[in-house]
Design a protein that fits this description.
By secondary structure, this protein is of the alpha+beta class. The longest helix is centred in the middle third of the chain and has 24 residues. It starts with a strand and ends in an 8-residue tail after the last strand.
């Protein structure tokens, strides 16, 4: 006789502080003279890099993520009236105490724009594994309750998987940031947002022969 199979989902969630802040700093300008534009952007990008060097202890990684140089044509599309260029650098920071001052200094530079920061956990953070284990434990507890309701016990695990089919999977969300002016300290007052780490698993188990009341 085939074993009865019980199918359940298990869920778990944790709120943990972020470990990294990521932002993008872009140097951009427009000029009628292409050579002059290239020189302006290159000079400002060099000055921006020097500013980031001053915060080397806070910056874990920085990468050039975009370089654009485009002509802007006249209405007939035959002659370039000006040139627009930009260079973007993505910066990863781990020292949040220095982050507000760094963004404050960058925001005050000419030709510079900033996007972010976005808060995140490090890839491979243990919170994900811990939450998955908790989700499995939750699923086993639910399956045990079903088994006990019909006078059975858990027998063996048939399947365990991420519950993708049900729209659930481990998630590490990055959130926006809260920011306020702090002129007396020469920096922005940032409030890192807690990260939600979630997991949802699918569990199939067999149970011993049920003993139904009145059977």
């Amino acid at each position: 006789m085939e074993k009865t199979i019980v199918t359940v989902h298990g869920e778990a969630r944790r709120e943990v502080p972020p470990e990294q802040a990521v932002f993008t700093v872009t140097v951009s300008a427009v000029d009628r003279d292409k050579a002059a534009l290239v020189a302006r952007i290159n000079q400002r990008a060099t000055e921006t890099a020097a500013l980031l060097d001053r915060f080397a202890q806070a910056v874990e990684r920085r990468e050039t993520t975009g370089l654009q140089m485009n002509p802007e044509y006249d209405r007939r599309g035959k002659r370039a009236e000006a040139y627009r260029g930009s260079i973007s650098t993505t910066v990863t920071v781990t020292d949040f105490e220095s982050l507000g001052e760094l963004l404050y200094r960058l925001a005050g530079e000419d030709l510079v724009s900033i996007s972010g920061p976005w808060w995140q956990l490090r890839p491979g953070n243990r919170a994900g594994a811990d939450v998955r284990r908790e989700a499995v434990a939750d699923a086993l507890a639910r399956a045990r309750e079903y088994a006990e309701a019909v006078g059975s016990e858990l027998d063996r695990i048939v399947e365990i998987a991420d519950a993708d089919a049900a729209g659930g999977h481990p998630v590490m969300r990055s959130a926006a940031f809260a920011i306020g002016a702090a002129e007396d300290t020469g920096g922005f007052d940032l409030s890192p947002e807690t990260q939600s780490v979630e997991a949802r698993v699918l569990l199939r188990v067999t149970i011993t022969e049920p003993t139904l009341p009145g059977a």
